[in-house]
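[worker-b] picked up task from shared queue
[worker-b] task type: protein-ligand structure
[worker-b] ligand name resolved to flavin-adenine dinucleotide; SMILES cross-checked against name lookup, match
[worker-b] sequence length check passed
[worker-b] input payload:
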Amino acid sequence: MIDFSLTEEQQALRDLARDFARDKIAPVAQDYDQTSTHPQDLINGAHNLGLMNLTVPEAYNGGGLGALEDCLVAEEFAAGCAGVATTIMGNSLALTPIVLAGTPEQLEQFVAPFCAAPNLAAFCLTEAGAGSDVASMRTTVRREGDEYVLNGSKRFITNGGTSSLYTVFATLDPSLKHKGICAFIVPGDTPGLSFGKKEDKMGQRASDTREVIFDNLRIPVANRLGQEGEGFLIAMKTLDRARAGVAALALGVGRAAMEAALEYAQQRQQFGQPIAQFQAIQFMLADMAMKVETARLMVWKAAWLTDNGRPNSLESSIAKCYASDIAMEVTTDAVQIFGGYGYIKEYPVEKYMRDAKLMQIYEGTNQIQRLVIARNLLRR
Ligand SMILES: Cc1cc2nc3c(=O)[nH]c(=O)nc-3n(C[C@H](O)[C@H](O)[C@H](O)COP(=O)(O)OP(=O)(O)OC[C@H]3O[C@@H](n4cnc5c(N)ncnc54)[C@H](O)[C@@H]3O)c2cc1C
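[worker-b] inference finished, payload out:
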């Protein structure tokens, strides 16, 4: 049976997130963007409403909900501000390796206290020389008795420097490629952990992005996730899950741009009539609606597969690639519909366009998504 309706609980959750995004996030989105300020008050607010860490089991102070609920909230938050949404939803990405591969003891020790307060977490995979080619990472780990010692650095880490928990991927030996990668939980106050400067970004400027540096950082062996050499698999499984969430963020930005363009087109008068009367504008609006609606279908399908324990690699890559590509198109068209005003920071749509661009890049560029999609097709 196919059913596209949300349960009452899902609708209530979405409405709660929508109200928070409209009343609290959207009004300050331009300020946070221009000043590139860390949105701690919004993180506190989202946490107070129970809108963070939704996919962590309730036993560890999470929401005990599924990927679909996470996507519903991500869409709403991103419609308010993609930078704020990326900051908050970054926790889903960073905590998923622990939810997937952590022992009950690790969840109790690290995740339960983490989720009890408005904390942030960071997922540390990318390096300066290892972006799409994750397996070429150079951050090393060596075992010394009951401890591991980490050395190296990670690039472009969302919530780097503002997090209390880091999930870190490092290699026992770079020549082992993906077989040498291990995953670890690193508390934010561990000696040997430091951060680079905050990146000055094109968009999503409310989200902190920094280099994360490990200088002879020591952690107990008990902080390792899974077995030695399982880190690559843990990272890939995490990304398969998380991609629907990124797609939902892209969907939220695209939807917000469409709604802004729709409203503006009905108000703006040229040649004695609202520009919405011109077929050229109507067709752009119609294309926007088609793209936003079809992206949402794909986001929901990818999340549904995750929630039903089915393979989702193909669908989550399609969702991420498609939703972020259409977000770029829809936000660009929204700027076009606003005309010259669309290019001015006083109006909301130029920010949407800048914010959307990142979604085609992070958590696997859209070229890499197309590789994943093609490989899945050819394997069938
Ligand atoms: C703001 C921001 C936040 C981020 N947050 C995080 C985070 O929290 N954690 C984290 O680990 N990482 C994070 N990243 C890193 C992000 O995931 C990487 O930037 C991304 O995976 C691409 O890696 P790269 O930048 O090294 O590009 P490269 O891998 O160097 O790619 C450059 C270009 O080559 C293309 N390309 C590369 N390989 C292939 C191929 N085989 N076939 C076809 N085309 C190819 C790419 O698609 C791209 O167009 C973030 C990045 C940014 C900008």
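[worker-b] attaching auto-annotations
[worker-b] The chain has a mean pLDDT of 97.
[worker-b] releasing lock
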